[in-house]
Design a protein that fits this description.
It is built from 19 helices and 25 strands. It is of the alpha+beta class. The protein folds into two domains: 241 residues, Aminohydrolase, N-terminal nucleophile (Ntn) domain (Glutamine Phosphoribosylpyrophosphate, subunit 1, domain 1); 175 residues, Rossmann fold. Strands 4-3-5-2-11-10-12 form a seven-stranded antiparallel beta sheet. Strands 6-7-8-9-13-14 form a six-stranded antiparallel beta sheet. A four-stranded parallel beta sheet has the order 18-22-23-24, sandwiched between helices.
């Protein structure tokens, strides 16, 4: 906790991790009498992708039921709430805001009754033309309930001249630019769709109930494992899948474009027990560590991960280098978002609440500290500090991705690019800033090799500053971000105050 004047003994927000923020998760299921309960479990598995709000819409074929609120999945849904969510189909969402402020109005799924019938929408991603579409729709008299870009989708569908949900959705999707993995619920069907470049993941799974297929869709396959579904494959870029009592229709609503799968899903966001973009996340992370060890070797006594997301890369680094792996930093998993700081200010108070070094391992040793990213540099500096306080003789920082120099406009909450330390400083300056004895990042070539990207199928824009789409509204997106941070209404703002 640094930077802001704040009286001792007052609550502080303990969210000082210097990372990109997960975006959102979507889940959808058709053909099970306990659809809402299974959606709840699916969202629970996907909680790491968004912790601000959660929501489920279900349908029994006649009536759509909705429950959404701010909070974690198990805070929003209890037995009573789930009992109300009747029906054999449901969609769900967990949210971390990337567009629109963090208020309850922006919690998803969005539910509307329009001329196409009942419609609920859950979205993972960010529409780069969301602002322009909203202006156009507002200019013709429509009123928006919330500030999220997602709300343009039901508006576009309501305005469509196409008579039914499926064709209205297709027409609407063709107007969207940017990143979207969508789950939609009508009264008698679910529909999922993915943008033409496949920025964000969307997996398709199946399970059986009383001898019949149950169709399941989720941002990550870890949600399938929890409910006993098996992974079938990806929803393809440019594809929509409609599931109803009449069966399953798979349709390309538009031809796929050159793939731009978010590489950060493999570097950091997704759970290591998930298959994302048809590839094991754990496998990618270990490969990142191995590549890093080959590119930037160093003599040391232990390889220590910054837990939990640095664990797999540290295993890879250790295996490749032959340096023993050790859990020299322990994460406290039970730290809430707020904490009352004691009257006497403690050095590195916030980070110590979450991470504590194992003095027995670290004292007098040369340590390779493996982390998955270094965004503003604030937390890395504190972690290097607490390793030294614990007696580490040398601390060598290794980052399992290239320097992050540019913001994301595809559904990941990133700082303004001038806040990114690698955009302002050389690697040597960053090393000095963190206080490490040496610092090395994985090269872009190494990253591509680690995710086996032989055909150029991943997005690397936050490392290159080159975007795969025309970011026509980049200034508006940056302005939205600044307004959000100035509004005092977003978690990102509060976390920055706490740093
Ligand atoms: Fe992912 Fe970075 Fe591309 Fe955003 S810019 S989609 S975080 S790789």
């Amino acid at each position: 906790m640094t930077g802001q004047a704040r009286p001792n003994g007052s609550p502080v927000i303990i969210d000082n991790e210097d990372r990109f923020r997960e975006e959102c998760a979507v889940f959808a299921i058709f053909g099970h009498p306990e659809a809402a309960n299974l959606t709840y479990l699916g969202l629970y598995a996907l909680q790491h992708r968004g912790q601000e709000s959660a929501g489920i819409c279900s349908s029994d074929g006649e009536t759509v039921h909705t429950r959404k609120a701010m909070g974690l999945v198990n805070e929003v849904f209890g037995e009573a709430e789930l009992r109300e969510l009747k029906g054999h189909m449901a969609i769900g969402h967990t949210r971390y805001s990337t567009a629109g402020d963090a208020g309850a109005l922006n919690a998803q799924p969005f539910y509307v009754e329009c001329n196409k019938g009942a419609l609920a929408v859950a979205h993972n991603g960010n529409l780069t033309n969301g602002h322009a579409l909203r202006q156009e729709i507002e200019a013709s008299g429509s009123i928006f309930q919330a500030t999220s870009d997602t709300e343009v989708i039901p508006h576009l569908m309501a305005r469509s001249r196409e008579p039914d949900l499926r064709h209205a959705l297709r027409e609407s999707l063709l107007r969207l630019e940017g990143a979207y993995s969508l789950a939609l619920l009508g009264r008698d069907r679910i529909i999922v769709a993915r943008d033409q470049r496949g920025f964000r993941p969307l997996a398709y799974g199946k399970m059986q109930h009383e001898g019949r297929d149950v169709h399941v869709f989720a941002s990550e396959t870890c949600a399938f494992d929890l409910i006993g579904a098996r992974y079938v494959g990806e929803v393809k870029p440019g594809e929509m899948i409609i599931v109803s009592d009449e069966g399953v229709i798979r349709q390309q609503f538009a031809p796929p474009l050159a793939r731009s799968q978010c590489v950060f899903e493999h570097v950091y966001f997704s759970r290591p027990d998930s298959t994302v973009f048809d590839r094991s996340v754990q496998e990618s992370r270990e490969a990142l560590g191995r590549c890093l060890a080959r590119e930037s070797p160093v003599a040391a006594d232990y390889v220590v991960p910054v837990p939990d997301s640095g664990n797999a890369a540290a295993i890879g680094f250790s295996n490749e280098s032959g340096i023993p792996f050790s859990n020299g930093l322990i994460r406290n998993h039970y730290v809430g978002r707020t904490f009352i700081e004691p009257k006497q200010s403690i050095r590195n108070f916030g980070v110590k609440l979450k991470l504590n070094p194992v003095r027995h391992i670290v004292d007098g040793k040369r340590v390779v500290l493996v982390d998955d990213s270094l965004v503003r540099g604030t937390t890395s500096r504190k972690i290097v500090g607490i390793m030294r306080d614990a007696g580490a003789r040398e601390v060598h920082l290794r980052i399992s991705c290239p320097p992050t120099i540019a913001s994301c406009y595809y559904g990941v909450d990133t700082p303004d690019s001038n806040e990114l330390i690698a955009n302002r400083m050389s690697v040597e300056d960053i090393r000095q800033h963190t206080g490490a004895d040496s610092l090395a990042y994985l090269s872009l070539k190494g990253l591509k090799r680690a995710v086996a990207d032989t055909n150029g199928e991943f997005c690397y824009s936050c490392y290159t500053g080159k975007y795969p789409t025309n970011i026509v509204q980049v200034e508006q997106l940056v302005q939205d971000y600044r307004m959000k941070n100035e509004s005092g209404d977003s978690f990102a703002w509060r976390s920055r105050q706490a740093e």
